[in-house]
């Protein structure tokens, strides 16, 4: 796995301060450790920054909004690299988070518990 650079760590810190509304809503639930699962937000992984990361399950949750539509090809390369490093990548639509954040959290936690 490639090393996480100081620039990636700095970018992650900046992203923590500039989270979108769906990311904030999701983080408010995930930080409470649902299902006794620990999550990190805006976590550096190699040269990338994962929106949310559950280290025990090596699961990355990405919240996809309009910005991701314009860079779908780049996201595909990123996801392939992450999967190649042994991570499970789950993408959720920002609109789903806005509609029912609890259902999104429940689905993610169920997935993690199934992986254990």
Q: What descriptive keywords fit this protein?
A:
single chain, 116 residues, alpha+beta, Endonuclease, Chain A, four-stranded mixed sheet
The global form is: globular
Q: What's the CATH topology label? A: Endonuclease, Chain A
- How are the strands of the biggest sheet laid out side by side? 1-2-3-4
CATH architecture classification:
3-Layer(aba) Sandwich
Helix content: 40-55%
Largest sheet report: 4 strands, mixed
Tell me the number of helical segments per DSSP (H or I, 4 or more residues long): 6
Top-tier CATH class: Alpha Beta
| Total discrete domains | 1
Strand content: 15-25%
Q: Secondary-structure element order, as H and E?
A: HHEEEHHEHH
Mean pLDDT: 88
> Which parts are unreliable, with pLDDT below 50 for 5 consecutive residues or more?
none
Number of strands: 4
CA-CA gap between termini: 23 Å
Fourth CATH level, the homologous superfamily? VSR Endonuclease
Structural class of the secondary structure composition? alpha+beta
